[in-house]
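Project standup — Tuesday

K.O.: blocked on the structure for the chain from last sprint. Re-posting the sequence here as requested.
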Amino acid sequence: MTEQEIRKFLFRILVANDSFDGLDSELFDLFAGCESESEYALISHVIEKMVIVKENKLSNLLESMAQFIKDKKNELNNYCVVAAAWDEDADSSQAVIHQLKSHLVGFGDIKFFNSVPQYLKKDRISLYPNFTLIDEFSGTGNTIINRVKHIKKHADSLGIQVNPSVFMLAGMQNALSFVKTHISDCEFAFEIKPGISGYFSGDELDLQILNMKKLEGYLSPNVDGNPLPSLGHGEAEAMFCIKRWNAPNSNFPILWWPKDKLQNDRSTVMKRLRP
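H.V.: unblocked you, prediction finished:
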């Protein structure tokens, strides 16, 4: 693609999708490492399929989560909502709880816990054995499953039977399928196909995976001791973020990885505080 062709393509995208407002140069920079028409085509595909959720659309996702929680509250006694956070660091699941509360007017007696460890303190799990684990996004499903396993193990040690459910604002289709093999009561408000394997097959799939890994070769292989997660953490192939939120590391690194191979800062479409 010539520079003029890239700009025409991006103009069409920017007109069609106002989620990309203010990201003109960042989108253009995604093409910088391309050396073949096949690589240009892959970047064009990524930009077209990428999902950046603006505030008005986030409200819709939160409303879906709120309705799930209301239904559980009406159905179950001794019910609570647990953020998937694991420690005291600020976490996306805690941001979700904060945003969620305005969608639960009339349900002010719902008990919230800001992390799994907070839920497991004292006698809380015995008081609220019915719970919904929530978070912003699931790339592989592993974190969700491990959190629920930990809760169940703790409950078993106390002789308590817990009843878990899970609701994510968004997540990969593969993650949802995987979680449901362990926790049947699980929903994502928005499901996302893998960015490459969800759209290509056969030789074309192999070619596009090769192209993506070649483009990743222009990125620093390591930042602050953290290795570059090829194709996204767990090879999730995600292309999702909430605007002005910390982007999930399940996304393709070309969308958020902070350094190039010369250790220069990159201007990225998605922002993430730490690798």
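K.O.: great, moving the ticket to review. The two ends are 31 Å apart (CA to CA). The longest helix spans residues 55-75.
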